[in-house]
Amino acid sequence: MTEDRKPMIECTGLNKHYGDYHALRDIDLTIREGEFFSLLGPSGCGKTTLLRVIAGFEDISSGAVLIDGKRMEDVPANKRPTNMVFQSYAIFPHLTVAQNVAFGLRRDSRSKSEKDALVEEALQMVGLKGYGKRAAHALSGGQRQRVALARALILKPKVLLLDEPLSALDRKMREQMQVELIKLQRQVGITFVLVTHDQEEALVMSDRIAVMFEGRIAQLDGPEALYARPADRRVADFIGVMNFLPADVTGEDAEGNVTVDVSGLGEVVLPPKQISRLTSGDERPMVGFRPETMTLLSASATRSQERETGATIDEVVYYGDMTYYDLRLDGSARGDGNARPVRISMRNVFGREVQDVGTRTRVAWSPGSLVLFR
Amino acid sequence: MKGRMNGGGLRAYAVLYLLFLYAPIILLPLFAFNAGTIIAFPLKGFTTQWFQEMWGNPTLRRALTNSLTIAVSSSILATCLGIFAARASTRFAFPGKGPIMGFIMLPMVLPEIIVAMSLLVVLLGAGIELSILTVILGHVLMCTPYAIAVLTTAFSSLDKSLEEAAFDLGETRWGAFRLVILPLVMPGIISALLISFTISLDEFIIAFFLAGNEPTLPTYIFSQLRFPKAIPVIMALGTVLVALSIVLLALGEYFRRRGNARIGATGTGGLV
Amino acid sequence: MAASRRSEAVQGATLIAPPLLYSLLILAAPLLTLLFYSFFLLKTGYSDLEQGFTLENYRQLAVDPIFRAIMVRSLWVSGLVTLATVLLAFPVAYYLSFVVRPDRKALWLFLITIPFWTSYLIRVFLWKVIMEQNGVINSTLTGLGIIDEPVTMLRTVGAIVMTLAHAYAPFAILPIFVALEKIDRSLLEAGRDLGESRLMTFWRVTLPLAMPGVIAAVLIVFIPTVGDYVTPELIGGGRIPMVANFIQVQMLGLNNRPLGSAMSVSAMLAVAVIAGIFLLVNLRYLKVRQ
């Protein structure tokens, strides 16, 4: 893991105001050397501002940014050991591919032939070998992206900053580039900081992810922890799908284990690691679970740690590889007349039939996959 | 979507309208090469006499030199001022931006006579002698808004991140401007130069009141209109001027489009 | 480029400084001088005397029936020109925007703008040649035996209106065209879909949405034509002077700069007031965000 590596980017007490608008609030963040780090959040959450602060395009109102141990306040963007891949790629349209890639080498003292070799090497690295002479404005979106990568990486930056680099690509291309970016990052070994609003993209690519809302970091964790143990209700909502059931806390012991009565699931005891925060505006504690953590019992055998609940299939949504079922849990209606159905997902493996709407069924679930928000 | 039913009628109207627009201009070459001295039908036969007379006229040559000097200086100065203004208005937010830009663009709608008269009053009051220099002062003022209009389009079609990318890749701010911005807006700059040149070359009012005793092409034309015998030569001169304007504009349009093609942009939009 | 708002404002201000200074020096200072002349100087004998603040120049204008007539005529002629130009231009703009194929639009626009870029003086002169007693139209008509006596066309308001309408045509077409281009075509389909006839859709959807362009066209044509000098001089033959000619006569011919200045200021004021009222009346069309 990257835990023991030295810090590459350190932000402490970072604040950024635009007039009355508070774009970044008390950001404390350490990104380590060689890490693939993502800033994830909805638009307007401050993730791009934070990236541009690191790049040197925005100054800060208070706090400090250190890159590789050096304070960056007075270092302009053109002197920082960072390079950026812009959302629009910002490929210079009047230059060829090779001229674009060589752009940052202009002030370098190396000979022409050495530079040419570096350009060729960089193009090869991004899979554009032989494209050097092409006009940049004639390239496809994916190719522009690669040129932008080669242009930034040729300067051997300590940090590569990527501002929504895949958002302009179609779905297939995006998935392909995700894999390529991961490979590229392993190959060059430098720190990548990615800004994205696509939670799936962040989960697929990152070592660690900072989820941001309204200028604050709401949670900073690895993808698995983020998915399985969202720190609060908003993070849970933003990352993947989560079902929420109203719950009443009925007891709490000295170790912090909490007993809750969950609508539709009954009473469970949850250890502290399965307890997260609510977000302001929620009145009642909630228990959440992911769709794949509940199983239709007609389809698989019961295991010992699992519990069972009766349910009725309310809606069936067929996705080819998966089927989503909206279920009405028995007993979920008590006290909550209009309780929403919960959504579970089942892989369509061979021999498993898709169930019909209205079917009475039983579902299995495990208390270990529940998260209490209180 | 299209009104196919009334498309035909509209089309006929539009063609008639174009004829109306071009009718006077078509007369120019017709009578410039016409052997008769009166501008009336029927035509009398082909001659190049008027062009020869035009070329042999010393006052006209002087007017031509003056006009070219004024147009070249005015277009360069107006384009330089235009670059500053267009860059400022497309890239930066500064207090009072709207009113300031509106004020600079004002000569586009202000009656020329008022611009000319107020400037004349000041120049005379300050004891400055009228010359082609004072005409240039006025023409720069008239041409700058048009240069700004053309250049603003060129500057605003630039992605701001291109400049940031150049800066991010280690260039200085000036380097980013010189290596990225300038080449990309160059077609716009050429276009602005050509348009300013054309406006200055054809401008009459300011030249008429601010040139003192120096003739320019339009003021020379105006002075000759009283003499019926001079009309055919004026027709010849007009033909040359209009031909020149059209060539310059076509060039300007060509550069503007090439600029668009170069950065992969599409879109119509005219010179105004 | 670690640009805070403040440094951005400073950079912007630095960049705008040269063109702004130029305009202040060559445009604002002279206009203020006119204002000063009109309020503080009086023509007495052969020189302009400083009087302290006075409204005498404006009083002279107000009581002078000739000036009033010229002012009213200028505004009236400009109004006619504007009406004719915009009415004639609208169908062309509509044709350009709705009927012409997208790849042909640039060519049409280019064709329409070219005459505008040729010398204004020459175009006005050409109209004179066309409309003269022994000019193109009369010689053609008499030659064909359609008329016996040449028709007088020059020195009429109609001739001035037509010449100016010709000169300002592109000014009217372009803003209307731009406004029409901005209209979301699905709005028109929606209008038709909701049961309106083609004509009513035009009346209730297209026209209101095109109004910002029409308003711009009206102002762009009206404001400069009030101050036009060449057309009344050449086409009107000096018989139908407008404010510009009168200002010129006062300023240079009679050497009465205070009065000429007061006329310039009055003319600008009149135009500004009319433009302001026109904008106010049409405010509701400008508030619509498309």
From TrEMBL, chain A:
Alphabetical list of InterPro entries matching this protein: AAA+_ATPase, ABC_SmlMolc_Importer, ABC_transporter-like_ATP-bd, ABC_transporter-like_CS, Mo/tungstate-bd_C_term_dom, P-loop_NTPase, Transp-assoc_OB_typ2
Molecular-function GO terms, alphabetical: ATP binding
Gene3D superfamilies: 2.40.50.100, P-loop containing nucleotide triphosphate hydrolases (3.40.50.300)
SUPFAM superfamilies: MOP-like, P-loop containing nucleoside triphosphate hydrolases
SMART domains registered for this protein in UniProt: AAA
Domain ABC transporter: 9-239
Keyword Electron transport set for record: no
Keyword annotations from UniProtKB, A to Z: ATP-binding, Nucleotide-binding, Transport
Any Pfam family hit: ABC_tran
Protein name, per record: ABC transporter ATP-binding protein
TrEMBL record, chain C:
Transmembrane segments: 20-40, 75-96, 108-130, 157-180, 201-223, 259-281
Keyword terms of this UniProt record: Cell membrane, Membrane, Transmembrane, Transmembrane helix, Transport
Highest classification ranks of the organism: Bacteria, Pseudomonadati, Pseudomonadota, Alphaproteobacteria, Rhodobacterales
Chief site of localization: membrane
Name the UniProt record assigns to this protein: ABC transporter permease
Superkingdom of the source species: Bacteria
Family recorded in the similarity comment: Belongs to the binding-protein-dependent transport system permease family. CysTW subfamily.
Pfam families tied to this protein: BPD_transp_1
Organism: Paracoccus albicereus
Membrane topology of this protein: Multi-pass membrane protein
Keyword Transmembrane: yes
Alphabetized InterPro entries for the sequence: MetI-like, MetI-like_sf
Domain ABC transmembrane type-1: 71-280
Subcellular location: Cell membrane
